[in-house]
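Narrative summary of target 7.
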Amino acid sequence: MRSIYSKILVWCLCTILLSLGAFTLLSRNLSFHQNKRFFQSLNALQLEQAIQAYESGGPVKLGAFLQELNRMFHAAHYLANARGIDLVSGEDRSTLASLGPPPWWPGSRKERKVGFESVSSDGRYRFIVVAPPPLSPFAFVPYYVPILLAVALLCWALAMTIATPLRDFAGVVQQFGDGDLTARVRSKRRDEIGKLARAFDAMADRIETLRNAERQLLQDISHELRSPLARLSFAAELTKTAADRPAAAARVNKEIRRLTDLVGGILELTRSEGDPSSIDSQLLSLTDLLREVLHDCQLEAQAQGKTLTLLEADAAALRGNAELLRRAVENVVRNAIRYAPAASEVEIRLKSNGSDAEVTVRDYGPGVPEEAIGSLFKPFFRVDASRNSDTGGVGLGLAIAHRAIALHHGEMSAANANPGLLVTLRIPISEATPLDRGLPPGEVY
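Modeled conformation, tokenized:
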């Protein structure tokens, strides 16, 4: 029996039959002991009353008394002397007592009349009762059959209630395994089967989302790689025929750098999407980390005639991966530098409320259309739909930063500051430690 439906049905029926057999045997044994005591007491009483009737009124009164007993108990009652002679009719009743006990007596197998005998204490009288046999257990079969059928129907319904959703579940799992990632159980049950089905649906939703994201990522990667590779091929051809060979070689190197940045960003995004448990974590000072990032970015800002200004810096320590957090903050700062107007400031703040650290970076550039803000942290997204690399990076910086902050159980958001764009990084922090050293506000890099 490989079917759970068959197993449940057979086990339920076997349990019912075993319970019925045990109940029948137990009932017969209990009724035997109870009936034995009852009939012994009843026969002793009837014997005493029959002797009183005989001794006070002779055979006539005894006969009337015995007839009344016959009518009331639907059995034949006799009072005989010590030799078994009927005191009413004078017939020999000694053989009646040999009829034996009833069929429910232990060891009895015969379906026949039964005889009971009680002897007076002085041995002068013998009271004999001859009764029809009690009902055989098989006489109850017509009553048991409907009950068994009803129980079997209930067992079948129980088996169907459990087996049917499991069969449907197995079909959905098979369908999902065959490649149909839209297959769902969508069970409304509230029991363990329903919980299992909803857990599978949640897992399937996650797998489908990851698969779709992977496909989109592969499409974006192929699209992003196609353009620099085509430009690199064109620039390489120019080096063969161009009059200004150094300019052509510089063009080749420029495209190589762009391609290197793109591949590096893709690799970094892939690493950040890996197993979070494999990330090295240590206690670090976010203020020191921010100072290092601003120091590294100041040359780029100065080369473009822009200024990095730290307006506020609270002391904050947290446990995390220093490289991931440094790259996240650096990507946001460099993005602000790229879009900030010439001779403008990029404002940075670090605030701590004891449970969260909040880093904000604001530029005074053109901002982002409201409908595009929700897509800023998606890989390869750029506001300029032309994907011209001259108008921005490869669209991976903010996506990498967003993933790094998420791995530290934080949040990252963006909003138009009118003018400019305000990007906020919020990260849970640890309790203050001696590592925390606030930076002087208003410091210009």
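Confidence is low (pLDDT under 50) at residues 103-111, 385-391, 431-440.
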